[in-house]
Design goal:
Number of strands: 13
Distance between the termini: 26 Å
Number of domains: 2
CATH architecture of the largest domain: 3-Layer(aba) Sandwich
Structural class: alpha/beta
Strand order of the largest sheet: 3-2-1-4-5-6-7
Helix content: 40-55%
Order of helices and strands: EHEHEHHHEEHHEHEEHEHEHEHEHEHHHH
Strand content: 15-25%
Radius of gyration: 22 Å
């Protein structure tokens, strides 16, 4: 097949969930199909990453969309019914480029990642279309609304109500729609043509080890620190959970690992010598290897948390909230520890730090689960099946009489 693959962010480097998903999908598809990638970028520096993607793409087209213009574009949608983030990622140059590609080239299918990219081909009727929503953004926004500051609530409520309707309307415009968890599918107002295709984890890259964890009292949180659910989770942990842990185990150190930490996160390290904020790191595996426990007190967001899968693959015991484990086929107490309340969360962290045997049992079980269930190749094959279904549905809609015969 010839595939036109559309993304709002260049799918490399792999520090955001949508980038990770797109990269591994493209990598798998390139084995048997031809992929043309058309992606927005927000700086010319990103062009240095093209070489990595050229290994898997026949052609790569990028359109520069500077943040300054994106904010102006989003503002122009304030009095419309379109979600602001859809406006933020809209570019006339991108629309022109995609239209040119569809006019000059023949594609068997168009893969669009995230609702924010849907306006570019929503009205295109000639080619089968798949929308990978990744997660349901209205669910993400609803949960964020519950945790955000009072000043932000009116704007977020407006975005939530717009997203809920826009997602449902957009689903109807595509032959097939994909989300990464059953919870995301169930939250959609419309799910007649929606399939679940989870995220995977690179088990070769995130290899299993437990050799350095025996006497460690280190905790870690890995994630994009420019993302609200991660910021909220870390602040919640430091304020409400870490002090309870330190009452029992005083030499605990907490590593916050991830790109784009805002001032409120960087300040944590200035106030407490036992908190380390790394910012961007070339290889997150070293922090997973040295930490005895990975903590994920996520209280908002949606979809599957890749960072949890990566910790599980690496042999690092996990304590997480139900939101962090949502969509992952874990059995609490077998693959990971689930805790939502601060006291319970702290007590389970202390238990794991004090019990190497329990950590080892959880780590082995979690690694086995990841190997058995969360394989990118398996989900690549599922994606091909979804493409075939989309093509069949498109033919049926285009030629209803012929299809009936």
């Amino acid at each position: 097949m010839r595939i036109l693959y559309l993304t709002s962010r260049l799918p490399y480097p792999l520090y955001k969930g949508d980038k990770l998903r797109a990269y591994h999908q493209i990598k798998y598809l390139s084995r048997r199909h031809s992929v043309t990638l058309c992606s927005l970028i927000d700086s010319k520096e990103e062009l240095s990453y093209i070489n990595e993607l050229e290994k898997y793409c026949e052609c790569i087209e990028t359109i520069l969309l500077k943040p300054y213009f994106s904010y102006l574009s989003a503002f122009s949608y304030v009095f419309s019914r379109i979600p602001l983030q859809v406006g933020y990622y809209y570019s006339r140059k991108m629309k022109k480029k995609i239209d040119e590609l569809l006019t000059s080239e023949r594609f068997d299918i168009i893969h669009t990642q995230l609702v924010r990219m849907s306006p570019y081909i929503k009205d295109h009727r000639k080619t089968p279309k798949v929308l990978d929503m990744v997660d349901t953004l209205s669910l993400n926004m609803k949960r964020r609304l519950e945790k955000e500051k009072l000043l932000m609530k009116p704007l977020l409520h407006l975005e939530y109500t717009r997203l809920q309707k826009y997602e449902a309307d957009t689903c109807r415009a595509f032959d097939k729609v994909i989300v990464c968890s059953e919870c995301d599918k169930q939250f959609l107002s419309y799910n007649g043509n929606v399939s679940v295709c989870p995220n995977g984890v690179d088990t070769d890259f995130f290899y299993f080890t437990e050799s350095t964890k025996g006497s460690s009292s280190d905790l870690c949180f890995l994630g994009n620190m420019g993302y609200f659910p991660n910021i909220d989770a870390v602040l919640f942990f430091v304020k409400n959970i870490l002090p309870l842990v330190k009452k029992k185990i005083s030499n605990v150190k907490f590593y916050i690992v991830g790109i784009n930490p805002p001032g409120c996160i960087r300040n944590l390290a200035r106030k407490d010598k036992d908190i380390m904020v790394t910012g961007f790191v070339e290889d997150v595996r070293s922090y997973l290897k040295k930490a005895a426990v990975a903590v994920y007190p996520i209280r908002s967001g949606s979809g599957i948390q890749n960072k949890v899968l990566e910790a599980m693959a690496s042999g690092t015991a996990v304590v997480a909230t139900r939101y962090a484990l949502e969509g992952i086929q874990v059995n609490p107490e077998e693959h990971a520890i689930m805790a939502d309340k601060p006291g319970e969360f702290a007590s389970r962290v202390v238990q794991l730090l004090s019990d190497a045997g329990l950590r080892r049992r959880l780590a082995i079980n979690a690694r086995r689960l990841v190997e058995d269930v969360y394989d990118w190749d398996a989900y690549g094959r599922e994606l091909e099946t979804i493409y075939a279904s989309a093509i069949g549905l498109h033919i049926s809609k285009s030629n209803p009489t012929k299809s009936a015969l």
